[in-house]
Amino acid sequence: MDARGWDQCDFVYICGDAYVDHPSFGMAIVSRVLDAHGYKVGIICQPDWTDPASITVLGEPRLGFLVSAGNMDSMINHYSVTKHRRHTDAYTPGGEEGHRPNRAVTVYGNLIRQTFKDAPIIIGGIEASLRRLAHYDYWQDKLKRSVLLDSGADILIYGMGEHAIVEIADALDAGLPVDQITYINGTVYRTGSLDEVYDYDLLPSWDDLTADKLNYARSFNVQQQNMDPITGHRLVEPYPNSVYVVQNPPSATLTTDEMDEVAELPYARDWHPDYDAAGGVPAFAEIKFSISSNRGCFGECSFCALTFHQGRVLQMRSHDSIMREAELLTRDPEFKGYINDVGGPTANFSRPACDKQLKHGVCKNKRCLWPSVCKNMVVDETGYTQLLRDLRQLPGVKKVFVRSGIRFDYTMADASDEFLRELLEHHVSGQLRVAPEHVSDAVLSVMGKPSRAVYDAFCRKFERLNREYGLKQYVVPYLISSHPGSTMKEAVDLAEAVRDMGYMPEQVQDFYPTPSTMSTCMYYTGVDPRTMKPIYVARDPHEKAMQRALIQYRKPENYKLVREALEKAGRRDLIGYTKHCLIRPVPPRPGETSAGGGHGAAKKGGKAHGGAAGKGPKGSKGHSGMSRAQNTAGRNRAAQGRQGANGGGRRN
């Protein structure tokens, strides 16, 4: 501040992540966008939440405080699906855990409110975005109020937030009191009266929600149907004592020019030098040489928070902008010739699902890819294919990887094999990770994923093209266990599919009920909110452990769980010495696999046998006002999946 001649910041941004100035991190995007509009932003990263003085080091801001938990929901950042504390934090210098509080948005908000009584507080990021209305909290196993109320904030920004944050800044700068900033799309505010709230849909009240879980399912379905900027309505959630939480319609999607502008702001593209001694910020190493090309996703998987956070309309950067970023990477002294990823929530989406969406918004009661590809879908992978070709022609580029995941059903709907040929010939390194998620059509239907037949056909085509090119490359599926709809029978079906593929998955995601996904609503309520029909849910931790163990039945440590699961499912025929058996009748001796006869040692890696599925729950990418999301660090390590930076992410 002294070096810049600032007496006071316009905004002070308090964040649960370490400071990385890169377009994959929402904190960087929001602060750079504000800077580009002439506002002075100071940043306090990972303050000591037990010490009020930690948030006073930059003084009181002229316009207000911005608050974000960081690129991940703080509870997902801290706890595994089994609710055990994680030992590392990829968004902290040196990967050291313990530098942010649980429910960081709430804790930071209250700390500010206690210290600066009247300062405007604007919250955003993935944690705020996905908790903007009443929501199920897995860690406390109960419904919680809107985080806007619990944090003491004045305004909540949901979604990506570039438009909303500038509009709020301009309103505050013009002298408008924060309690009168109620008109901005992409925001949530509280009010004591609905006299001046127009054109809204009334959601079930807090009392109704807590009285009957089915009311929450009905409410969530309405929320899910109003996530489009064109068709979305204003929603009102009543609370006791004449308190109303009002969600304005979503912000308009960014145009291609706006996407380019945001991506090409003057980021330092590095962590803060204060972190050098600790070895830097681990999450940045995953995305330093990756490029985010799009946001939004019309795949709409039930377990993914992207729809609730970024929306279904795809937003794409221009070809030229992406090429400029790639050239910038090649000039980095540490660049070794490898671009680690070019993509977004789904790499091979490079245009909106159909032209109708741009004029009339997305369909409220139909999905683009499920149960089959919509007849209005424009399947076009040529733009992304050409982008990959041009990137690998850049001087200094040796290889361009595609690691953010592709939708194989979209590729199968493409009349041309051009993209798939390009992918396997130039952009796969031995293994292509895809996400069928499961093999049971009953479970896949609940997930909003294509049938197993589509995955099998993709694998056969992948194998055929590899043979044509003389390559030995394999499809490796992501798998989810204990997703709503999966009984022990479906879990055994999945284990048998793994057996038939001939390898043991090293990564399995046990379903993680993260805030504001369709699947989480199913987990809490026991019904599909779209139909209100009952659905089976594995809620008992022991049953969830059995379902997960079945997928990795070869592991000796899983023997007892697998045997119990098979007996419970009435599948003792899979216990024995014949080659179709999963396990032997006796526990394995030290050094042995627990697999049944004919399996031998478990192979790692996988062949494209066309029969498995899945990743873990996807979360949300995007920055919800304070956090965007890159998509490279591994699809939502905790259940929101790649929350990258703007507070969103895909899998957890």
Automatic annotation (TrEMBL):
GO terms for molecular function: 4 iron, 4 sulfur cluster binding; catalytic activity; iron ion binding. [4Fe-4S] cluster binds at residues 297, 301, 304. The keyword Amino-acid biosynthesis does not apply. Keywords: 4Fe-4S, Iron, Iron-sulfur, Metal-binding, S-adenosyl-L-methionine. Pfam families: DUF3362, Radical_SAM_N. Residues 633-643 have a biased composition (Low complexity). The keyword Plastid does not apply. Residues 283-554 form the Radical SAM core domain. Residues 608-619 have a biased composition (Gly residues). Binds 1 [4Fe-4S] cluster. The cluster is coordinated with 3 cysteines and an exchangeable S-adenosyl-L-methionine. InterPro entries: Elp3/MiaA/NifB-like_rSAM (IPR006638), rSAM (IPR007197), rSAM_horseshoe (IPR023404), rSAM_sf (IPR058240), UPF0313 (IPR022946), UPF0313_C (IPR024560), UPF0313_N (IPR013704). Its cofactor is [4Fe-4S] cluster. SUPFAM superfamilies: Radical SAM enzymes (SSF102114). Residues 584-652 are annotated as: Disordered. HAMAP family: UPF0313. NCBIfam families: SAM_YgiQ. Belongs to the UPF0313 family. This is YgiQ family radical SAM protein. It comes from Collinsella aerofaciens (strain ATCC 25986 / DSM 3979 / JCM 10188 / KCTC 3647 / NCTC 11838 / VPI 1003).
